[in-house]
Amino acid sequence: MNWGLKDMSLRRALLGIAGMSAVLSLIYLGTSLQYPMDTAAQPGPGFYPFIVGILWLVSSVGLALEARAKKELAMVSWPQGPAFSRLIAIVGALLFYVILLPVLGHLIVAAVVILVALQAMGGLRWQFRIALAILLTLGSHYLFDVLLDVSLPRGIFFG
Known about the structure:
Blueprint: E1 8-9, H1 10-32, H2 47-69, E2 75-76, H3 82-104, H4 106-121, H5 126-147, H6 155-158
Antiparallel strand pairs: 1-2
Helix pairs in contact: 1-2, 3-4, 4-5
């Protein structure tokens, strides 16, 4: 299924991705500035997202510069068949995370997103996918809430 998208050069594809990524990183940075930064010794809730946003923006600019330096070597095509289905599943899971994180909280939404991503990648038995999704979700909760003391959204069930 092509959805009207044509094949494009690698340079054009990378420049498009770099541009979209830069715009998203600027939005992310703007959002991070709405939270207190505090200090590096006692970081506030805006400190970590601000650092991530800066690194994201620098990466986007680096990708754009690399794409501009590349010679036209290859054409890229949108994935077809099962690969396209996997792409849509992962993009849908990420949208699910962004939209429902404030409502359902990190524990539930992260577990679902990780499970969908593991399912899309395949290769693991379903029992291992579930166990890994739970382990990664609890690990991220422990890292942020306990070790870094950065509260993640708890949602309506754990709030």
